[in-house]
Automatic annotation (TrEMBL):
SUPFAM superfamilies: SET domain
The protein's name: SET domain-containing protein
SET domain sequence ranges: 46-216
Stretches assigned to coiled coil: none
Amino acid sequence: MTYTTVPNSFDCVKFSSEPVSECFFFPGSKEALMNMPNYPQPLIRPKITSFRIVDVAGKGKGLFSTRALKMGDLILTERPLLVCARGVALPRPLNFSDEQYFQYALDHLERNYEIAVNRMRPEAKEAFMALANCHTEDGSGPLVGIVRTNGLSLGGLRPGVEGDVGTYNAVCKDISRLNHSCSPNTVSQFGMASFSYSLYAVRDIADGEELTYPYMDVGVSAAKRQEDLAPYGFVCTCTACTDAAASDARRADIAAFNASASISLIEAGIAGADKFLGKYRVKISAQLKLVEQEGLESLSIYWVLLRTLMDVHIWRGEAKEASAYAARLDKIRWDADLAGDYKQFLDPKSSAYEKHKMWRKLYRR
Ligand SMILES: C[S@@+](CC[C@H](N)C(=O)[O-])C[C@H]1O[C@@H](n2cnc3c(N)ncnc32)[C@H](O)[C@@H]1O
């Protein structure tokens, strides 16, 4: 295992005034990072501060917007204070019970985290130690408790290791202050090159509204969500949880449609008939309304529905309607896999429409 600072001292010559992350890495992660294309990049902060941290009744602290935000707005960028291995494989001492072994592993992790935390700059250490800890009664040491309460799952730093989606926990000064909602209005994206998170609004947010974040998959039932939230030591009281029966039915509908609402299905529809597509468009529009009603714009199904609707309108030769969906797709900046070049379709008079291989294709049948 390695302790390292990111960006390292060589990079810091370039970005000397920037915050750094202390890391407790598996072998190979540091090298993987150094070899990433474009690494290192500076941390680019938004020009305007759009949030403040305040006390929230029953939730500890939380983030609130200080101005009206639009879907896709960048709220903040942040390099984590700490990025650390979630767990380390340890040989089990003979005669240790499961409980003893678990405690032994937690203690071992605590000692490793201590080394990483002691490497932090004083202001970073102070911010880290001030974070919430809901693991004070389960054998976790104080640092493990802070990491387990505040860590965002981070993968992609162990090339060749199968299932590397959440090998690391990343603890942030501000993002880790976000409270959970099952209808979150923000999501974050991690950029390896700048080694930082960017937090985006996934829908319009009013001035003074609480900024919320999904701690786990929010597309599932209320019961499953409460189960997944148990380690955080609170019971969620968001609208989707308090009106669980109605919300569960809508989320189940969204999840079921997710499996079939693919662009390839639409393409299959084209071979069928205009009529099929017409009906399908109505169904997709209804699904989009459900997603918005449930506040699930953070899920990739939102993109699928918008993209499908844009395509259907292009295929029908309806540039004005297509451009309205292109404008919304253009704002989905929080998922690098989904972001695309929708700018060319923003103007309904753009020549990109006529150049599109499916433009008015339906009407030529
Ligand atoms: C990552 S921290 C969030 C920031 C935290 N509220 C603070 O004071 O720093 C996670 C902890 O915040 C609290 N929390 C987060 N979301 C909550 C919610 N929706 N309702 C009540 N408490 C919540 C829980 O105590 C949880 O363990």
